[in-house]
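Handoff note, outgoing to incoming analyst
You'll be picking up this chain. Sequence as last confirmed:
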Amino acid sequence: MVVTAKIARISLLLVAAAALGSCAMQESQTADVNSMPLAAAASAQVGHRKNIDELSASELAAYEHAVAVLKKKSQDNVFDRTGFIWQSWVHNCTTVAVANSRQAALAETDMNRYLLNQAAPDSCNIHTFLNTKGMKTHVEYPGECEHQKNTFLQWHRAQLYFYEKALQAADPEGKSGPSTKNVTLPFWNFTQKPSGIRYPAAFENPNSPLFDATRTHEPLASSLPTSSPYLLAYMLYYDDWENFGGDEYGNRGGGDLETKIHNRMHAVYIDGHMADNQTAALDPIFYVFHNFLDYSFEKWIELHGAAQITGGDMYMRGEQDISLPKPQGYDPGSSTEIRKDSGDYLPNMGRAAIYYDIQKQGYGFTPSKQGDFIPQAEILQLINQHQQAGFVFGDNKISLFSALLSYGSSQAVANPQATLYGRYKIPSVINPASKILLSFDRNHTDPDYSFQADVYLYPESVKENIASAEFRNRYLVTNTAHWGLSGTHAGHHLAIGLDVKAVINSLVKSKAGQTWNIALAISEAGPDKISARDFSPPEILVK
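Most recent structure output, in case you need it:
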């Protein structure tokens, strides 16, 4: 990437000023991300994914019809890989018992009763919703999502690709409703106030196939969206790949987009099916929610390029119907076994790297009329306001991270269930190549549970007072949220590593040699009980 002198100066300023967890700040173009040309703009053959609230009446009708047809396909044959239930299994289920005939009807009343209208069904177990008496079965492997590592965004992009193809194949000739051949998957920008009382209005119509009764349906509790558009924009402009998308070995708890944005939406804001990774894709809102994350992923690629993305050689697990169009560059891998008892299918969704160019895969994003991402100049102005007094404080004594967070309703918690403490001596020099991580572990728990962790860094002369808004606003330096997972994802040792290099770097000049306190405040992100014994004290590690 060619970087101008002006951009280089901005990058140096950011390294000295920024307090959000971001390793070495990435030099990036200063163009407004909302006005940047989309990868798909040059091709008339590329479908454009739009904001759900900006679909025309005919576009919305075709999209709703496509979802309804996918549900009807699952009623006719729950094992139809182009149907709604199988597509949800691609995300939700590692294994499913499948009839040897690969055919089993599911009455609409049973599908609604046991799957779509039940908050926590055992949706991967066909014996809970099918009459399997006398049914001979074999095991198939629909898929299962990727989380907490560097293939989180790539896997979900692959899943959305095939889901969109299934929508388009639902009723292309318009035999039972509007033609679905040109349907594209809309996105829901949840960093903006919703058009309905809590969600996009199209998802709040009880008569729509987009409705899910298990979601939380209370009105938005604040005039602010749940996720801050400023926090998201900061990540887009200044996170490197490891911080944005996750590390290769999954030993830092996931990238910022997953842990600071995605997890709380699943576990707290939407709830219902979305609260559990083994049921999440039973809610149609799952796909428009993740499509905005995919849009954000695309914006990061446009700003930084794909060269630093890791995990590109990994094959994205997920068994899809062979009738659905393959992505460009698809190959299943030479060592992939095709089972003879499972019909015709694609054994996986291809390598992650083939999805980095969305134009080749036949889609792009149409920016919303009001814009979808805060311009970089506005983020830079916010940074400048918080770098005048050292340690990222502005005149109002609020940290940069608190300022970024304040544009959403997902705030630091005033009364955490558990608080653990550590200490750190500010160094006199920092190796530019080093990583500085705020680290803590959570012991194996069964079941896994969701939590939010707020991290405070403050001088020894200051008394910790998390209940005070002034303390929280001034000393909050980063946070994370963990989404409690189930199935094969659950029950493992959880190691969290949050990048605080820029924070420490801002202290070196004036605070070197001082010992500062760390407070790790753990709060429930759902109905679960928090135990301080599950967590290790926080420490700052240089790697």
